[in-house]
Structure formats: C-alpha cells, structure tokens
Amino acid sequence: MSYETDRSTELAPRQSASYDCPNGHQFTMPFAAEAEVPSVWECKVCGGASVIVDGERPEPKKSKPPRTHWDMLMERRTTDDLEEVLAERLAVLRGTGEGRRTA
Q1: pTM (2 d.p.)
Q2: Which residues are annotated as a binding site for Zn(2+)?
C-alpha cells in the first residue's frame, strides 16, 4: 500500500463517451484524449453490446442464412433418390424386405 496521495499527480487528458445498452442501461466510459473511441462497448450492467450515443453505428455484418439439414441433403441427393430411399426404408420397417439394399 502506498502512502502517497494523488493530489500532486496530474492526470492525462481524457475524453468521455456515453453508451446506450439495448436493455435500457446507460453509462459513460473515460478514454485517453488521443484514443479512438469504439462505437460498441460491453454494457457494465448486463454485458450486452452497447452502442455509443450520437455516434456512428457499426455496419451490420453480412451473413448468409444457416443451412438446414434439408439444404445439405438436397445438395447430395435428388428428390427421386430420396423417394427411393424412403420406399426402401418403409419396406424394411414393414418387414417385407423388398427394398433391402446390398452394400
């Protein structure tokens, strides 16, 4: 522990940035005067992505929609192939054995 006081210490120049959280929280963060202030900062209350007040909004990231199991299946098989596989499996389940494949 230091017994020195901050009274004789001169603080570096600072700037403040205010942020709004999508959950309604508002807070201000101090930054060095020469620092580039980020447009997004983690909320001090809930950890959500807060956006700077009256600043430039970040560009939304472009993302392609997630592929479903059906999409991936249709990349590998045609509808006729799938109907054939379905008929074979139904035959096996019904016990007729007509549609059994040999590997």
Answers
A1: 0.47
A2: 21, 25, 43, 46
